[in-house]
Every structure is written in C-alpha cells, then in structure tokens.
C-alpha cells in the first residue's frame, strides 16, 4: 500500500465518474449561482472526490457536486469543500481534492460498499487462480 492509502479513512474507486460542480452560492454575501462545469472525476470515496479542472480553486471553497455514480441510480447530490489544489506542471490543469461536507448517509454507504468491493477485486491475483483451476482439472 502506498503512504496516501494508509492515511485514508475510506477506500477509493479509481474509475472515471461524470461529475458536475459549481461554487456553492453564498447566501450571506448574496452571491449568484455560477454555471455548472463537468469533469470526469478519477478518484471517488465515501469521504470525497478528486478531479482535474481548468479552474484554480482556493482551499476552503465550498462546491455543489452532482456525481453520476451509477447509470441505474439518480445523481449523487452533495456539498464538498476544496481541501487541496495541485497545479499540473506545464499545463493549465489543476488537481482538486474535495471532502464531502453534506451527503446523504445512504449514498455515502453505497460509495463505501462499492469502493470496498472494488478494492477486494483489484487485490485478487487472477493468474494464481487460473493456475490453480487448471491444476484442479
């Protein structure tokens, strides 16, 4: 396991998920809602999502998020706070790490269960299984 995996509270799903986001309107400052942007998030867990964007967010920015987690289910609608931004060298692209601040508990559990199942599948050594099956026949 790498060092980052050891620090994480939740397992991650490293598959692309269509994600829409916008800066959450600020009711205190009467900020108007911004338009929705769409990206392919490439790292999703029950605690947050990581995606690449052309926008350079400030840490602490609150986002409205809509994540297309499954084609058989409605979008996951939640709020997140930007906890880390890293500019990719020689590009105008930024890696954005976002922690969920408001998410339905059922949806959070669904992400958690799926990420744990994916983790188990990724750790299986299929070549050893195939060898064992061929020896058994």
From TrEMBL:
<protein>
    <submittedName>
        <fullName>PilZ domain protein</fullName>
    </submittedName>
</protein>
<dbReference type="InterPro" id="IPR009875">
    <property type="entry name" value="PilZ_domain"/>
</dbReference>
<dbReference type="Pfam" id="PF07238">
    <property type="entry name" value="PilZ"/>
</dbReference>
<dbReference type="GO" id="GO:0035438">
    <property type="term" value="F:cyclic-di-GMP binding"/>
</dbReference>
<feature type="domain" description="PilZ">
    <location>
        <begin position="7"/>
        <end position="112"/>
    </location>
</feature>
